[in-house]
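Bumping with the actual sequence this time:
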Amino acid sequence: MKKKLCAVLLIALVTVLCSFSGAFAAKLICVSHQDIKGEQSINACLAQGMEFAILDAQGFVRVLSPREIELTKMVNPKALELKAFGLKYHRLAPVIPPLPVPPESLG
């Protein structure tokens, strides 16, 4: 009986932790203009020459180079279609969408 209870509690704990993991995912944040609050897309801001950075769950910020932006456009274009937010409003920024699962991996 104790083993079943421990197993149920462990499964519940893992489920709760997994549900919160999305809230702490990485975000793209504008570092050129800190007061942006979703008025335009990241692509529109990049066209105006603004710089972006990745803000991770631990609070580390890494400014993206132009080469990294171009590679991101090729690999995950949906990431640059999101609304842009500055550092002042980083809590409102959406998380970077995950890459789509390729059809060949589905079996």
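The tokens above came from a reply further down the thread. Helices lie at 2-21, 42-47, 66-75.
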